[in-house]
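Annex B. Sample input.
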Amino acid sequence: MGLKIIVAGKGGVGKTTVASLLSFFLSSRGKRVLALDTDSVPNLALSLGLPREMESKIVPIVKDESLVEERTGARPGESWGLLFRLNPKVDDIVDKYGIRISENLSLLVVGSIDSAKQGCLCPAISLGKALISHILMEERDVIVVDSEAGAEVFGRGLAERFDHMLCVTESTQKSLEIAKRIARMGRELGIREVTYIVNKFSGDESERLRISETLDARHFFIPYDYSLIRAEIEGRSLKELDESSPAVQALRSAFESIFG
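Annex B, continued. Sample output.
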């Protein structure tokens, strides 16, 4: 069986940064990586280096109304109480809609599968969940999921198929408490391993010690790095970052410890 990793956390802490650099790291080791963007505002494509003009044309799977109608028998929003297939055909979607980033790295932009945000279990959510369930059951080297904020959106039956959660947080008390709640949800849903990534850290040794005493699992500190933030602002591939980047070095070291 392959390795299935979910990158989770509250909004704005750097989930996409971690997911993209992890995807580059594992694919550079010869692993065949499929990166899934399941955020409601997907932007993993830019971090992986897809040109903005190409990225802007991507329609997330759950937002492609024609595809949703073709696979479920119902068009999203047509009418309340509409009947639709709960087990739509999804086994060809990665091949048809996946985007090749490099020889060992592909991207599929799924979009959010959080039914709470949609208001119901609509045809689009049905397709999205069926697709992710199918992908997680396939024999692939590595699957990296850039998730919607929180882990509960995956629910039992999806989350329990992940081997590892990287829970990304900042060093504020509020962010740390949210991260711990997300990690607890992940464990309750069956995710076997949880690691915290304390991102954008700029504190001293006493601050590092305080955070270490707060967290309940293995954790790594990633220093604040303006070059990484600038690359994200400019929409540049994070692969272009110089190896001297403190954040890139720290993340590589963390990935080595966790997955090496």
